[in-house]
Design brief:
By secondary structure, this protein is an alpha/beta fold. It has two domains: 2-270, Rossmann fold, CATH 3.40.50; 275-467, N-(1-d-carboxylethyl)-l-norvaline Dehydrogenase, domain 2 (Orthogonal Bundle). The chain is built from 21 helices and 14 strands. The strands form four sheets. The protein has a six-stranded parallel β-sheet with strand order 6-3-2-7-8-9. The chain has a three-stranded mixed β-sheet with strand order 5-4-12. Helix 6 (176-190) packs antiparallel against helix 7, helix 10 (275-297) crosses helix 15 (363-370) and helix 19 packs across helix 21 (455-467). The mean pLDDT is 95.
């Protein structure tokens, strides 16, 4: 079997490096870099990626051994049918480690073709540390490194407006672009950089808020031999991902004009406000997960796929999403139902085993953010409590009893105070009094849910039905 590199794979087009990417992990390689590669094939974008390793230890050496080449393996359901596809990614040029050579890192900024910055440095990556206050050697935080790089570019090109960059962070935090910009301006101040640099950042750099969505399980170690035999290469960087992908980019029209990804037929949306799409994802995708877990687990189901393919649980979650969650959202109904149908296909993916108990981590706070808003808005709109969402909430309270309906222990994982509170609450013999105590705990819900007329009674009735199963 051949090694995978640019010697064994011939006729690979070398393009100008237009993108600097902080992060070399599975998600960026299986999502963003895959998108860039398809865009290169189907449009005139014609741009390669220079990756910067954001921490001292990473995949850089292994990626460089393969000259930046690797395969993305898509497996899942597409339009209800099983889909398997492999793609050789050729747009990633190499990985450089700034911890090994800070000056070489700064020289990346001298590339006149450089236009884009993409990152995924974990949710904690976009952060400012006042103690990280020296630019003569490599800053530790990602925004500090980026500030040093941008300042070098500002000096090298003498503050040229045309050499500003478009920044598309993919970290899973709200307003990620705005927060990155704020951090850079803070670092500019702590590094004591000239005011002209701050003005250049404000006026000639664009920071986009984004939402990313694709499940990327990563390296398929359990079946890598079979995949490598099919590929004909010893690829040690194969990335598994689902077919579904969505990238919502909030920014000015110039971003869409320069980044022709929609022309490649990919699921990328350029919007003026990504908040409705974030809400859609949280309420439908994440909300369905959180809604499903307790109701399915208590019925003896253990995985997401098993649950949505179960006649009862599958019908339950579909009705919860299509009849009770979607009516509370403000996007067009057709868009919401299309997204929800994709979600159901993703839940049924036969190539991904998603344990319910792994989703159950910190379920109370998840329910508060993901499901409770839909439940309350539905009541405000319809004047009645939604059957499925209240049943899920009731199941959640039973779930936090810590034993299932067969009296077997549930391995709950949540804050110790929360677990102790539920242990004490379940000692109350009267169900309605117990529910009133739980719903009245403002530390759990950030409001007194017991004050909503009829909710205590509805949840109590639902709990009684569950305990009779």
């Amino acid at each position: 079997m051949q090694a995978l590199n640019r010697t064994t794979v011939t006729k690979i087009q070398e393009r100008p490096i237009k993108i600097i990417q902080f992060g070399e992990g599975n998600f960026l390689r299986g999502f963003v870099d895959w998108i860039i590669d398809v865009m290169n094939e189907k449009t005139e974008f014609n741009g390669d990626i220079q990756v910067v390793q954001p921490i001292s230890e990473g995949l850089g050496k292994l990626i460089n051994q393969q000259d930046g080449l690797y395969h993305v393996r898509l497996e899942g359901l597409l339009n209800g049918e099983i889909s398997e596809e492999s793609r050789l990614i050729t747009c990633l040029r190499s990985v450089m480690n700034p911890y090994e050579d800070y000056n070489d890192f700064l020289k990346l900024a001298e590339n006149p073709d450089l236009r884009w910055m993409i990152s995924n440095t974990t949710e904690a990556g976009i952060a400012f540390d006042a103690d990280d206050n020296e630019m003569n050697y490599l800053p530790q935080q990602f925004p500090g490194k980026l500030t040093a790089l941008l300042y070098h570019r500002f000096i090298h090109f003498k503050g040229s407006p045309e050499k500003g960059m478009i920044h598309i962070p993919c970290e899973l935090i709200d307003k990620n672009g705005e927060k990155l910009k704020t951090c850079i301006l803070q670092y500019a101040e702590v590094f004591e950089l000239p005011e002209a640099f701050g003005k250049w950042i404000e006026e000639h750099n664009i920071f986009c808020n984004t939402l990313v969505d694709r499940i990327v399980p990563g390296f398929p170690k359990d079946k890598i031999g079979k995949i490598q035999n099919e590929l004909g290469f010893e690829d040690n960087l194969v990335v598994m991902a689902e077919p579904f992908h969505l990238w919502v980019i909030e920014g000015p029209d110039t971003v869409q004009e320069e980044f022709p990804v929609e022309s490649a037929g990919l699921q990328v949306k350029f919007v003026k406000d990504q908040a409705p799409y974030r809400t859609r994802k949280v309420r439908i995708l994440n909300g369905a997960h959180t809604c499903l877990v307790p109701i399915a687990y208590l019925r003896g189901l253990r995985t997401v796929r098993e649950s949505v393919e179960d006649v009862w649980a599958g019908d339950f979650i579909r009705k919860a999403v299509f009849e009770e969650i979607i009516p509370t959202l403000d996007l067009p109904k057709e868009d919401l139902e299309s997204f929800a149908s994709d979600v159901m296909d993703r839940f049924r993916n036969p190539f991904i085993r998603h344990e319910l108990i792994s989703i159950a981590l910190n379920s109370i706070s998840k329910f508060k953010v993901r499901v409770l808003p839909s439940l309350l808005v539905y009541h405000d709109k319809e004047g009645a409590w939604p059957e499925k969402l209240t049943a899920s909430m009731a199941a959640l309270l039973v779930f936090y009893r810590g034993i299932d309906l067969n009296n077997e222990a549930i391995p709950l994982k949540d804050g110790e105070e929360i677990l102790i509170f539920f242990q004490e609450a379940w000692k109350i013999p009267n169900t309605q009094e117990m529910v009133e105590k739980i719903l009245g705990n403002t530390d759990l819900w950030e409001e007194d849910l017991s004050s909503h007329p009829g909710l205590v009674e509805k949840i109590s009735f639902q709990i009684s039905k569950i305990l009779q199963l």
